[in-house]
Write a structure and sequence with these properties.
Radius of gyration: 18 Å
Number of helices: 5
Helix content: 40-55%
Distance between the termini: 70 Å
Number of strands: 6
Strand order of the largest sheet: 1-2-3-6
CATH topology: GTP Cyclohydrolase I, domain 2
Shape: globular
Largest sheet: 4 strands, antiparallel
Structural class: alpha+beta
Strand content: 25-35%
CATH superfamily: GTP cyclohydrolase I, C-terminal domain/NADPH-dependent 7-cyano-7-deazaguanine reductase, N-terminal domain
CATH architecture: 2-Layer Sandwich
Length: 161
């Protein structure tokens, strides 16, 4: 039986991890869609930023990619019937804030990143009733194992006035 060079098997291994992560992400997004059949949503999917978050020194020093998905629930009818950007949420603003948070000051926990993004969205965009934020770290090493990735997902609702 021929022995493949290490780099060849590593490429196959990474490809499998990427494919598995994409399948997982697709299942989660389908579940999110099924959960809100009658609600309007804005989805920002697969935003990739480089951050220096984590509890390990290497995570802080080298940094790593973070993949962010944001789902905003709000009534899109006013924007849809008027074609007026002022009556919806400007995606570029949500993207900009998510980037600033992920690429900003380091924190220990992925949960903190997700919480900050959700809080900012709800504070800066009054029409948004709730925000679902998923923050993933691909290729997470735990001891001698490399996971496809790890992720946290939170849902925050606007407090009733």
């Amino acid at each position: 039986m021929p022995v493949l060079p290490l780099y060849s098997s590593r490429k196959v291994s990474i490809s499998r991890h990427v494919a598995a992560q994409e399948r997982s992400r697709t299942r989660i997004l389908r579940a999110m869609s099924a959960e809100n059949v009658n609600g309007d949503r804005i989805l920002l999917e697969g935003m990739v930023f480089h951050g220096h978050h984590g509890t390990l020194p290497a995570e802080r020093e080298l940094g790593q990619p973070f993949i962010v998905d944001v789902e905003l629930r709000l009534d899109l009818r006013p924007a849809g019937t008027s074609d007026d950007l002022e009556k919806t949420v400007d995606y570029s603003e949500v993207h900009r804030r998510a980037r600033e948070i992920v690429e900003g000051d380091p924190v220990n926990l992925t949960e903190t990143i997700a919480e900050r993004i959700a809080t900012e969205v709800l504070e800066e965009h009054p029409p948004v009733r709730s925000a679902r934020v998923r923050v993933a770290k691909p290729h997470v090493r735990l001891d001698d194992t490399v996971l496809t990735g790890s992720a946290v997902e939170i849902v925050r609702h606007r407090d009733p006035a």
